[in-house]
Amino acid sequence: MGKLLIVSWTVHPWPTGSSVIINNIASQFKREELIILGEKPPAKLKHTWPDDYPEIKYFDAEISIYGRGQKYLQWFKINRLVKVIKRIIESEDVDKVLCVYPNDFFLYASYKVSKQKQIPFYTWFHNTYYDNETGLKKILAGWLQPKVFQQSERVMVMSDGMKQFYDKQYPQLESHTLRHGFPLPPPPKNTYSSNSDKTTFVFTGSLNESCRDASVRLMKALIKSPTNEIHIYSGNPKARFSDLGILGENVIYHGFIELDRLYGQLPKYDIMLLPHGFDGERTTVEYETIFPTRTIPLLRSGKPILAHSPKDVFLTSFLNENECALNVTVKSEAEILDAVEKLRTDKMYVDELVSNALKTSEMFEIDRIASRLKILIDF
Description:
Blueprint: E1 4-8, H1 17-26, E2 34-39, E3 55-59, H2 70-73, H3 78-91, E4 96-101, H4 104-117, E5 121-125, H5 135-151, E6 154-157, H6 160-169, E7 175-177, E8 199-204, H7 212-223, E9 228-233, H8 238-243, E10 251-253, H9 259-265, E11 271-275, H10 284-289, H11 295-299, E12 305-308, H12 314-322, E13 326-328, H13 333-345, H14 347-361, H15 366-376
Parallel strand pairs: 1-2, 1-4, 2-3, 4-5, 5-6, 6-7, 8-9, 8-11, 9-10, 11-12, 12-13
């Protein structure tokens, strides 16, 4: 039995999608089978990593001038990161390296070391790389991505949407779908409402460019009515929402909580919110292919999902194919409110949505995903 090194930009306790996914994968390996390397987190983040889980090592990539320039200045530390990865491989008898993208700094270092040490190298893209970059970063990506593709024993992508794009964009590349995996709790038995006098909604996850415009439009439409109440579970600070106009007595900010606790909270509310960006600072291909990590807990919540996602993106086709959410595909406040009314009043429709969502969630079960990963990396 060999030992795998997973290199990822964010790992526990960073409150990011990629970190959660790596945490979940780690739970399926024995301590002697896996070691993880990621960026050193801020001291304020609380560590809750179980002692019997695979070890996590951290690299301090922080380097900036007055808080700016991190994504460029960190490259001055690239040789140090390369040495750290080499040392881990040699001291831990690592015989396989898996790099999780998004972050070209960690991607390049792990690629370089695996090539120098001549050990199998695998990549798992949670976002597109070259096709989502601009300026100097795109020049780097144009040089690095082909080398990474060539060096990789297998290139894995996090959704069928990304695979379809890569199949079309890079016909010589054989990519493999490896979905995000989660330890799913049993379907909730008590799907009660927290307040019968109000309709309660939940927003979870990060408010970033992948969903910012849709999130703001969705929540602003809802908070206009005093009978609606939005509960926010996010690692973003409360000020981030307030600055965008998401504030008022009917907006309750809970902050970030661990996923196992979030599962227990979701059934208390009436409607789950799933926004997907229509436009913003990301590239068109990024909006077309991304699959929000927040989707999976919402599918398992036992409550209906109100999505706000444009027509021609993978998330929309996924929701339509599995008939597991009511999706508003246009930038219309009126249609958002009409969709809410349907979810309030059409019990048969809601029951069907919830049943389909629970069934759909099973394709992300961590046991299934970890088994597929081990097959793909010949573990």
